[in-house]
Every structure is written in C-alpha cells, then in structure tokens.
Amino acid sequence: MATATPAAEVRYDPYDVDIDDNPYPTWKRLRDQAPLYRNEEHDFFALSRWDDVKPALADWKTYRSGRGTVLEIIRADVEIPPGILLFEDPPLHDAHRALLSRVFTPRRMLDLEPLVREYCTSALDALVERDEFDIVGEFGIEIPLRTMGFLFGIPHADQLAYRRRTDDALATDGTPISFDQSSFDEVLGALADYVDWRSDNPGDDLMTELLNAQVDQPDGTRRPLTREEVITYASMVAGAGNETATRLIGFTMQLLAQHPGQRRLLVDNPSLIPNAIEEILRLEAPSPVQARYVQRDVEVHGTTVPEGSTMLLLNGAANRDERHFSRPDTFDVHRAEGPHISFGYGLHFCLGAALARLEGRVALEEILRRWRGWDVDTDRGAMAHTASVRGWGYLPVRPHRTTEGAR
Ligand code: HEM
C-alpha cells in the first residue's frame, strides 16, 4: 500500500463546488506541496505537474482508460460497451480509432466551416440589438449542437433531445454522480432512432459513412459495423464534442472581457485569433481532469501507487505549471510556448480538436465583427458542474456601446 500522504494543509475535493469554480490556487498548492496527491475520502491519487501529467496520459499500460475516465465510472465498475474510444485501451482502442479517423477526415471538418459560420452569423445577428444576453444559453450551447448536426446530418430537434438526456446522466450538484449501467443505456439509446432513419435515407454525412464503414476482422476479412456499433460511435463523438465546446465559448467571453487590452489586439489583428483560442484553452481547460485506473503498481515521487487505485491526471493544472510555462497565469494572445494539453495527449488525444478549434475561431471572428467590447457579469453568472467538464453554464454579457451608438 502507498504510505506517503499529502502535506496536511492541501485538500483537493473535486466535488467541492467552490474549488471547482476556481481550482487554480488549490492546483498550485498540489503542484508545489503534493505533486503526488492522495485523497482518502474519495479514494483517489492525483498528478498535477506538467512533467508528470503529460507522460502519464500516454502511458496506457500503467494508467488505463478501459474502466472509464471519470472517477465515478471507474468506481461503478460497469461494463463499458465497445466503441467508446475514450474508455478503451489498445489494441481495441487503436482499431476503433483507426476506423473513426478514416471517416473523421480533415477535409470533412473543413467542409463544415461555411455552415458553422452561417449558423454563427444568424445566431449573433439576433443578439446585436440586445443590451444583455446569456452567451452560453443563447449561443454557446447551440454551436456544437449545430456543428454535430452538420457533421452527422442530424435533425436539430433530435440533437436537443440527445443533449438533455446526456446532460441528465452526467450532471453533478457537488456530490458524486450515481452512475450505473442504465446511464450508459440512456446515453446510447438517444441516437438510435436517428441511426435507423439514416440507414434508410443515406446522405453525404458522417453517419452514412459509419453505416457503410468496414471493420477489419482478426481473420483478415472485413465486415460492416453493427447497428449497435454505429450508435455507440455516433453517441460517443456527439457526447465528447458537445459540452466541451460550449464551455470554450463561455471562457472566451469571460477572458476577453477581463483583458480588454488583449481583446483590442484581436480586434486590430484577427489573424491572432487562432493563437488566442489556444491560449484560452490553456488557461481554462474545459475538460481539466482525466481519471485513470492504475493497472500496475507504479512508483511516483517516491511513493508506490498500488494497482487498482484511481489516478486523476489534472491536465488543467499542468497547463499552468510554472515549471513549464513562463507567467503561467497570464493571458497572452501572443504566447508562443508550444501546445497545452487541454485536448489530452498521446493515444487519446482529442479526435475532434480540429473541429473544436474551428468552432472557437469562427465564433470569435463573428463575435468581434459585431462587438469590439463587452462586460461579463460573473457575479450573476453560474458555473456548470459536471463530472468531467467545467465552465460557465450561464454568463450574462453586456456589449459596450461606442460613442456613435454602434457597438
Ligand atoms: C474545446 C473542446 C474540446 C475539448 C477541450 C476536448 C477535450 C478532450 C480531451 C481532454 C480528450 C482526451 C480524454 C482522455 O485522455 O481521456 C478528448 C478526447 C476525445 N474528444 Fe475531445 N474535446 C473537445 C471537443 C471535441 C469535439 C468537437 C469532438 C468531436 C467532434 C471531440 C471528440 C473526442 C473524441 C472522440 C475523443 C476520444 C479520443 C480517443 O479516446 O482516442 N472532442 N477530448
């Protein structure tokens, strides 16, 4: 058994909503005082330094995803349906990822840009005359839903129903979520009707490609995916890409309101926007905690973490490690220090990163075309608390009026 415990004064409770609202002071203390942190109450270990988290994300032989990547899911010890890449280890993960990568091409992502821009244009135009709006509820929630819809060819109403069902399965009010087999069934069942409809009505979309995809068999033959496999793939991609991208929009508006000088740089030079999106992702990772099942005894910072433990890899903390980044808490749209790990690292690196970047960039380009300045009311805003994602659930924005009356 592990013997070392953290410095007594450091406490990181992932269910403490006050910590979750602003985890950075706590995570700094972890990095400095308890680089291998142990939480007895919730029975997990945690790594927070860049040099520890990044290699651990790639070390699937020690830190397995195959039992889930959320603390509660690992605990619940449920059987995970095949096809959920996030919750798989090699060789199955690699085979499934290869198949998905074949249909999830850069070309298909690029083709979505005009559609995403068209949606942003109409959604933001509808807000232009308003003195205040909720950027999350009135825009941030919609953009990934629409983008997923364009990708899969899913009717909009079905996407909203899907979103409600997955949100219900993963919402936490500061207590551990209760996760059982029915939660999976709930999430996976949500897209089933649409998959059936699409198999009778093929189109030029990712769902149709999945329905036509061939999977390699161990005996060298190939077979089409089963209906259940298509449902699982589609649900997993939609689930992974929805809430995360919403949270990116909220953080974008917050950080730019709080740093008007940086915002001005983007207004004057929109070619900086892609770099600004990277900096926002680094500073405020929408998915800042990746849980892993410890597959074998491992020695970390002089302590043996026993097989069967749960390890939290705090990529959101590693992104602000002063051992790796200069001025890590400073928001700098010119930062040129190389990548963050907000999309993970290694074999599970986010499959939708290009799409998430596209959504963030197009949204911000269109926002800055309409408003050069705004304030956010963080006191009235509310953070959403879910098991694996953090960010604004509600964020009132008040656009500035210029002297001419324009915005
Ligand atoms: C700002 C938005 C996003 C963030 C911050 C984000 C973050 C992440 C992270 C941290 C992982 C790795 C998880 C782990 O190591 O256990 C991941 C994996 C994944 N993401 Fe994203 N993601 C975003 C958007 C998207 C989008 C838009 C899609 C799909 C269209 C998507 C699809 C996936 C998939 C399929 C995986 C699993 C890859 C694998 O296990 O091989 N993500 N994402």
Automatic annotation (TrEMBL):
Official protein name in the record: Cytochrome P450
Iron recorded as keyword: yes
Stored PANTHER family: BIOTIN BIOSYNTHESIS CYTOCHROME P450, P450, PUTATIVE (EUROFUNG)-RELATED
SUPFAM superfamilies given in the database record: Cytochrome P450 (SSF48264)
Pfam family membership, one: p450
Protein source organism: Cryptosporangium aurantiacum
Matching InterPro entries: Cyt_P450, Cyt_P450_B, Cyt_P450_CS, Cyt_P450_sf
GO biological process, one term: cholesterol catabolic process
GO molecular function, one term: heme binding
Similarity annotation: Belongs to the cytochrome P450 family.
Keywords for this protein: Heme, Iron, Metal-binding, Monooxygenase, Oxidoreductase
